[in-house]
Each structure stands twice: as structure tokens, then as C-alpha cells.
Amino acid sequence: MSDLAVAPRSGRRWLLPVFLTVVSLVYLGPLLLALVNSFRDYAYTAQNGYISFGGFTFDNYKNAWEQADFGLHFANSAIITIPAVILTLFLSCCVAFVVARFSFKFNIALLGLFMAANLLPPQALLIPVYRMFRAIEVPFWVSDSGTLLNSHLGLILVNVAFQTGFCAFVLSNYMRALPRELYESAVIDGAGVLRQFFTITLPLCRPPLAALAVLQTTWIYNEFFWATVLLQQGDKFPVTSSLNNLRGQFFTDNNLVAAGSMIVAVPTLVIFFVLQRHFVAGLTLGATKG
Hints:
This protein has helices at 2-12, 15-37, 42-48, 59-68, 70-101, 107-119, 126-135, 152-176, 180-188, 193-204, 206-222, 225-230, 254-274, 276-283. With 290 residues, it is mainly alpha-helical. It folds into two domains: 13-48, no CATH class; 67-285, MetI-like fold (Orthogonal Bundle), CATH 1.10.3720. It is globular and about 75 Å long. It starts with a helix and ends in a 7-residue tail after the last helix.
């Protein structure tokens, strides 16, 4: 009787691995195909098809780097991404600390106001943001146009504005879980609000900050919409927008574009693997509590 009861369970045990393997192949299939063809000559794949074997070369990576001018555009991405991530995380910590540690009438409304930026589609704010950036004047050493339009500063600010709400929401929930006794002891020892923020809260928030740093770096680095709207000079575009330089006038070499895409993906992969331990720890925070 027991063998009959165990048999169906053991028979179904292989279903989950098979299902997960199929889903993984469906998800990774296009990526693996792009990776393989990025090392293949266009003439060979045009003659034999993309589902074939042969014609391997490294020329696509060399040509992609030269044609897309990746050196300049990687620098532009770094100028935009690094300050935007640092500023987003710092402002989010400030907002989350106020919302989590101080009880006042409008703290939930304040958090909702910051979250609203994440709920609105960016296309709905396209015209107001464009006109506002065109009207705000800045020194010419900041922008050649004399306004926030067509400047890296404008792109940094718009990314910070759209990402701060999500980070503040995540950090406020984490800060609420910190023991209140820590802050009571700090107050007894004479620690002010700034000292509580910088010496107690920020060190304890390293796991969620690391997870958010990985997410924000990926999102801001891959951001395409606002870069194409707010920037007008080709030498200021980030690296994701420079992939357009690989398109031909009459045809597109898909192997060349695949090689360019692989080059563009390298920085986010490096950041993920460097911060992988903190990223996983940040995602599983609170999973074993209660």
C-alpha cells in the first residue's frame, strides 16, 4: 500500500526539473543564439543561416567597438550612472529615515508622493519634463545649450527623480524593522539625529543598499527613453543609445549588433557578480523572520 502511495509522488518528481529546464532554455535561447552569432562572420551566416556551425571570427567585436565609438559612450554612461546611483541611494536613505523613524501626520503621504513617480509612465511626463528642462537655465560650463536640455546633469536629475521613490519604499520598510532599542540607547548616550543616521542606520542598511545599488546601476545604465529625448548631440549619448550607430543605411549586420550588445552588457554583469553576495542577501531580507 505504501509503495503504491509513494510511486505517483516519485513519478512526478522529474516534472519540475524538466519544466524548469524547458523554461530556462526558452529564456536563454535567444541570448545564447546572439552570443554565438556575435562570433560569426556575416557572409557565412547569410549563406548558411543562423542555425549553422562555422564562420567564427573576432572581427565583429573589433568593428563594433570602432564603429559605435564605445570608448566615448562608456565614459558618458559612467558620468550619468555613477552620480545618479549615489545620489538616488543617499536621498532615498534620507527620506526612508524620516518616514521610518519619525511619526508625524504626513509621513505616509510623503512616501506616497515619492512613489508616485514610479507609478506614472514616463511617456505621460514627456512634454512637461522637456519644456521644464528647456526653460531651466544653467551655466554654460554645465551645458553647451545653457539649459538642462542636452546635458548630462539633466539626465542624472531625471533618473534620480524617477528612482528615488522605489528605493525609499524599500529602505523605509527595512528601517522600520531595526530595533528601536538601538535608537533609545543612542539618545541616552547623547547621539543626535545626524549621528543616529550616519553611525547607526547607514551601516545597518548595507545589505539593502547593495541590492539596490545593483538594481539601480542596471536600470539607469540601460535607460534609453530619457536619453534619446533629453540629449540631442551624438557625442553625449550613453552607450545603450550608441548601438544605433551599428545600424546600416540599407541593411543591418545582426552579428555586428549582437557583438555590440555583448560589449554593452559586460559592465552590468561585472557589477552583479562583484556584489552578488550582498544582492542575494538583500533580496532575502526578512524571509526567515516571524
